[in-house]
Write a structure and sequence with these properties.
Elements (H helix, E strand, L loop, with lengths): L5 H10 L22 H8 L3 H9 L7 H10 L4 H11 L16 H9 L4 E4 L5 E4 L1 H6 L9 H7 L1 H6 L3 H18 L4 H13 L1 H9 L7 E8 L3 E11 L7 E6 L5 H28 L1
Helix pairs in contact: 2-3, 2-4, 4-5, 10-12, 11-12
InterPro entries: Cro/C1-type_HTH, Lambda_DNA-bd_dom_sf, MLTR_LBD
Protein name: Helix-turn-helix transcriptional regulator
Length: about 280
């Protein structure tokens, strides 16, 4: 992501995804670019081609809200993507340095340990900050210290777990793009994007699409090595007072095979925890 021209990079990416026929234009035979030409987008938004060029090249980074709304309509952006575009267009502000170590509120940590379903807290870079035993049993990549982005794109085991891997990866990159809009010059975020762009073709392709936003809730389809197929609901709740942290909870529809499988996984997790505790006691004697 260009640290200086995040707005222009985003406009260029989204322009390349809109086909002329999607907005009532005739593509013609001699088109050499995918998506819309600059002058076509400018015409649809009701601004001059020269002004749009300045926006895309970063020579004008403070367009009015009316111009941004016009560009969003011309680009067929949904509400989340439109909000992201407005955020990129705001004048940059001096943000206080963020602490290197993210800490979750004590009450939140206590809460997830008491929940009877898989739950974990992720940070602004999708690092797992805390997780209960059932979440760790659902996936070892839900353990504190793991980064969800690295795991889902780089760990073959995570791909085997997620039957809906294509949908899951698209969602998580959209969420990262939304987070990037809040502070496009964040060096930690830029480093993570750079690393994954180098190591994962799938991530690089999704990031280039510039889709914005993740589902705040949804479903996950998993194939667990111990309990088999799981269809789980996933809820994402913002942790109040914690910058970018989310509480993620998985649960199953009552009375379903997935609910029974999740209950079995809970029993396995309890047994494993008890056995581990007994082994530690024996070792200490």
């Amino acid at each position: 992501m260009d640290k200086v021209n995040a707005l222009g990079e985003y406009l260029r990416a989204r322009r390349g995804l809109v086909r002329p026929e999607d907005v009532g234009l005739v593509a013609g035979r001699r088109r050499r670019v995918s998506g819309l030409r600059r002058e076509e987008l400018a015409m649809l938004a009701g601004i001059s081609s020269d002004y749009y060029l300045r926006l895309e090249q970063g020579r004008d980074q403070n367009p009015s809200a009316q111009v941004i709304d016009a560009l969003a309509r011309a680009l067929l952006l949904d509400p989340a993507a439109t909000a992201h575009l407005h955020e990129l267009a705001r004048a940059p502000s001096r943000r206080p340095a963020r602490p290197r170590i993210e800490r979750i509120p004590t009450g939140t940590a206590q809460l997830i340990d008491q929940l009877p379903m898989p739950a974990y807290v992720s940070g602004r870079y999708l690092d797992v900050l805390a997780a209960n035993a059932l979440a760790r049993a659902l996936s070892p990549n839900f353990a504190p210290g793991k980064n969800l982005l690295r795991q889902v794109f780089l760990d073959p085991g995570d791909r085997e777990l997620h039957v809906d891997w294509d949908r899951a990866t698209a969602s998580v990159v959209g969420g990262l793009r939304a987070a990037a809009g809040a502070d496009p010059e964040d060096p930690n975020l830029a480093a993570l994007v750079g690393e994954l762009s180098m190591r994962s073709d799938r991530f690089r392709s999704l990031w280039a699409r510039a889709d914005v936003g993740h589902r705040r809730d949804g479903t996950s389809h998993m194939q667990h090595p111990q309990v088999g197929e799981l269809h789980l609901r996933r809820e994402k709740l913002a942790v109040v007072g914690a910058d970018g942290q989310q509480l993620v909870i998985y649960h199953a529809e009552p009375g379903t095979d997935s609910a029974r499988a999740l209950a079995l996984l809970g029993s396995i997790a309890v047994t494993d925890a008890r056995d581990s505790a007994l082994a530690d006691e024996d070792a200490a004697r």
